[in-house]
From TrEMBL:
InterPro entries: Papain-like_cys_pep_sf, Peptidase_C1A, Peptidase_C1A_C. Residues 2-118 form the Peptidase C1A papain C-terminal domain. SUPFAM superfamilies: Cysteine proteinases (SSF54001). It comes from the Eukaryota. This is Peptidase C1A papain C-terminal domain-containing protein. SMART domains: Pept_C1. Belongs to the peptidase C1 family.
Length: 119
């Protein structure tokens, strides 16, 4: 996000994943291997020949099959979550937080794998 302030993000203060993705598609970015996160505000310094972003899509909320298919076809995906106090104290295992609000999304994370189970 430190490079996408022109799209309305607040650098180290946060922002929207879609704004960062839009910037990446329009301007290209390097992989983390070649451009390590600096945790400070500034202008993006990169070699545009390193990476080409072809696009991004939004997966409908609640479509678990679409999420699983995306992970299987492209690898980890970005998802937005509600970062609750329970999550801040998370240690291990499956987190089942009944206070989680699917409309109060305030944190972006990588989703590497998922398994669905019915209660």
């Amino acid at each position: 996000m430190d490079f996408s302030w022109l799209q309305g993000n607040s650098n180290c203060g946060g922002g929207l994943m879609t704004s960062a993705f839009k910037y990446a598609k329009e301007n290209d970015i390097e992989s983390e291997k070649h451009y390590v996160y600096q945790e400070r505000e500034g202008f993006c310094k990169y070699d545009p020949s390193k990476t080409k972003i072809s696009g991004f899509i939004n997966i409908p909320k609640g479509d678990e099959e679409a999420h699983q298919n995306a992970i299987a076809s492209v690898g980890p995906i970005s998802v937005a979550i509600d970062c609750t106090n329970t999550l801040l104290r998370y240690d291990s295992g499956i987190l089942n937080d009944r206070t989680c609000d699917s409309y109060s999304l305030n944190h972006g994370v990588w989703l590497y794998d998922m398994e669905t189970k019915t209660a």
